[in-house]
Amino acid sequence: MDTAGLMRRRVVAILGASMLAGCGFRPVYGPPASGEESAAAAALAQIQVGLIPERSGQLLRLALQERFERAGPGSAHKFDLAVSFGVSSDAIAIRTDSSPTWVRMVGTATYSLVAQDPARATVTSGTARSVDGYNLYVNQYFAASTDTDAVQRRIAQAVADQIALQLADFFAKHSVTAPAG
Question: How many domains would you assign to the chain?
Fold first, then answer.
């Protein structure tokens, strides 16, 4: 790309960002231009993610922790997040010899955010879902194994993104605080 084209792109990006700032746009849980933490980001940092069984659950838990602890660990936990997560798979795209050529994997999570107070009140709950897949090649067992792992990671990342955004949106719309316990 030539220098003039690159300069035009930069100008358009700066103008677009300034127009969004002028209309009151603020990141939901990312750091705003002022550098101060948003209320949603502060609330997300107070969430403790419970253990999730299976390898795919471990991947989801790690992905959620990464999103909630963006500023680093150290916030006191005031909420517990309980997540039920499962990944199912279907062999589709069947050849004439009845062998599949593609595997579709679906990850579905249901979650509940509970306050760490004596009443253990449920603050909010929801679901998240992601679909991904991979090709099956004849007699390529190692490739299928690595593809399965890669798809499970992508599904966990996508589901974690959805849960984090749903919770950030909830905290941005509601002033929720858990009593100090």
Answer: 2
Q: Write down the pLDDT at residue 109.
A: 98
pTM, two decimals, is: 0.77
Same domain, 101 and 163: yes
Q: Are 149 and 122 in contact (CB under 8 A)?
A: no
CA-CA distance, 123 to 173, in Å (whole number)? Answer: 13
Domain extent for 27: 1-36
Query: Could you read off the pLDDT of 74-93 as tens digits, one per residue?
Result: 678 899 999 999 999 998 87
Predicted local confidence at residue 181, as pLDDT? 47
Sort strands 47-49 and 79-94 into parallel, antiparallel or unpaired: parallel
